[in-house]
Amino acid sequence: MACSTIGIVGIGPRGLSAMESLFLEASRYKSMVKVLAFEPFNYPGAGPVYDLGQPKTNWLNVTTRALDIPAREEVSFHDFHIPYFPTFQEWSGYNAKKLDKEAIDKFPLRSELGQYLHDRYLSITAVLKPLGLYNLIKREVTTITFTNESVSITDSGDNSHTVDEIVLCVGHQPTYQDEQMAHWLKRSNDSAELQLFKMPYPVKMFQDKLGNTSRPSVGVRGFGLAMIDVCRALSEGVGGTFTVMDTMTRKMVYEPSGKEPDRIVPFSLDGLPMAPKPLNRKIDEHYVVTDEELTNYVAFIDNRLNSTNTINSPEFLIKAITPIIAKKFTQLSNLTIPHKLSNQGLETIIEAWLLDSDFEHDLILPKQLSTKTLLQKFVAMATHTTKISLDYVIGHVWRHCQPTMYKTLSFAPLKDEVIAKVIDLDERLKRYSYGPPVDSLQQLLALSDVNLLTFDVVNNPDVTATKEGWELSKGEESIHVDTMINSVLDTPKLSLVKSKLIEQLREDSIVQPLHNDLAIETQKDGTLISRSEHLKLPISVLGRLAKGTLIGVDAIAECFGVRSKFWAKGVFHRVLNAETTTQTSASKPT
Ligand SMILES: Cc1cc2nc3c(=O)[nH]c(=O)nc-3n(C[C@H](O)[C@H](O)[C@H](O)COP(=O)(O)OP(=O)(O)OC[C@H]3O[C@@H](n4cnc5c(N)ncnc54)[C@H](O)[C@@H]3O)c2cc1C
């Protein structure tokens, strides 16, 4: 029996998960496939996001406790087996049962998770490679074409390869710059004096360059997680020290090394800071959604999805979660901002705020507060040292519902406009649900206490590119920076992607974007939905560019979810079908 070769383009976390699922299915179907993988990066399995070589100042935003990457089951074949590989918690020696609920949650380093993912990759390929079932081409794929039901691949070294099927697990792709960045880039290309870093990673890139400059002032475009990594790289990363002064609140002081920039000046379109994750399991338990609540939540959503009434907005999602949030807020009792509202009264406010980010109420932290005050209040809420606001509760209950929401909405029969609005809502709430550790925000506050970081122009300043740098002005305040680091990460919008491979597939009309050019349309098993009904190309897409995985695609645990399993099952259906068809036609009398 011929053994099909499956090409996997990109062996980051999702490519690894796809390969694991493939061999699990191979054992179930008692059929075999070979994998030809393409990955230019040094650490397959980890990919650049979880680069093992990145500094310790790059942290994950998920606690070790919540890092839900399932273990790999042992897979047995007639004459070999792929070993079991533990969960991240087991691998890193974390034992939740042994830990006090009040112990401060740990957030792994991104390099540590990278080591786990790379080890996991090595443990499967160590078995497959000697058997000739796995081969890695350490190059980027630049072109894919289809001939006679097989796939021709060209890599960046101009070498050609042929496989029977291909899956793209290419994750983060470079995108076209927005107008502001394009303008800055042009200027920095024209002037050797302007220091512009168009992306925040690897942080070593700007650490090395700035280390040779005498105390530059640094603007940081963006005010999210990557900005925090940038600030840490420019402080602790150049030898400074954070010391925790209060174990309850995690308040810190910063001792500079003298190698820091003169000033770090972050800014964004709204200047609103992220809200931290609760400090420990005990505090987080207030936001945990019970199984019964989740069942009701899913039932409500399913009911709406199956109803004959057209869904035109994310209101059905809001209505599903609102009663849960109201209940949690009430149960927090005297820990919240005082109020006299019934659950129903609370529900009205929750709904109003979820529908309109500008909605104001005494229970919701006003956006008009200074950034420093907002940070201080959020940190105090996360450590239970101040009264908790309703928006904080909404964000963290939302976080606990997120995996269920992502699962329930995957491939739901929603109009593209509604999917886009759901994504917008989830993105808005990421300021809370994807929030950093308390320590990260205490570090920002400590840097601002020693005037190394300023929030003076953080909220949507006018930015003027000058000969010597940039002028950031807000009201009376104006700050000059001579270096700019862009920490706004590329969006997953298909229409904006500018990688050679995706552009070629787009130009050849192989991939087609949907509404707003958001993503590639795929079946549930990742196979591409082609423009022509009769054209069934042997290509699948998993990850942030695929429509079915668009909602919630960016969490690491989602990489090891059901989608790669659906894809692997689909591969074997097709492989076995093809074999049956070949055998049947071969045995037909002529
Ligand atoms: C800076 C950053 C920090 C993040 N932090 C977190 C976090 O703390 N928690 C969390 O849950 N998620 C985080 N994420 C989200 C992240 O997207 C996922 O966790 C995960 O990396 C997605 O895995 P992936 O394999 O789909 O994509 P990627 O990790 O992007 O991997 C894709 C792989 O494909 C390869 N590739 C790309 N194009 C080609 C080509 N043409 N040919 C061959 N190979 C190719 C790349 O080299 C790469 O190894 C972060 C993302 C970024 C960018």
| Architecture (CATH level 2) name of the largest domain | 3-Layer(bba) Sandwich
At the fourth level of CATH, the homologous superfamily of the largest domain is FAD/NAD(P)-binding domain
Relative strand content: 5-15%
Ligand names: flavin-adenine dinucleotide
Strand order of the largest sheet: 5-2-1-9-19
Largest sheet: 5 strands, parallel
Tally of DSSP β-strands: 19
Question: Fraction of residues in helices?
Answer: 25-40%
Reported by name, the CATH topology of the largest domain is FAD/NAD(P)-binding domain
Q: Give the low-pLDDT segments.
A: 586-590
CATH class type of the largest domain: Alpha Beta
Summary of the model, kept short:
The chain is of the alpha/beta class and 590 residues long. It is built from 17 helices and 19 strands.
What would you say this structure looks like, in words?
The chain is α/β, with parallel strands linked by helices and 590 residues long. The chain folds into 3 domains: 10-95 and 104-175 and 491-587, FAD/NAD(P)-binding domain; 179-274 and 437-486, FAD/NAD(P)-binding domain; 281-433, no CATH class. It contains 17 helices and 19 strands. It has helices at 13-29, 88-92, 110-128, 179-190, 204-211, 225-233, 281-284, 291-306, 315-331, 343-355, 371-382, 390-409, 416-433, 438-449, 500-507, 556-559, 562-587; strands at 4-9, 33-38, 75-76, 81-82, 134-137, 141-147, 150-155, 160-163, 165-168, 195-197, 217-221, 241-244, 252-255, 263-267, 462-465, 470-474, 477-481, 483-486, 539-541. β3 and β4 (81-82) form a beta hairpin. α1 packs across α17 (562-587) and α9 packs across α12 (390-409). The chain is globular and about 70 Å long. The structure holds flavin-adenine dinucleotide. Flavin-adenine dinucleotide binds at residues 9-10, 12-15, 38-41, 47-49, 60-62, 140-141, 169-172, 201, 226, 489, 501, 543, 554-556, 559.
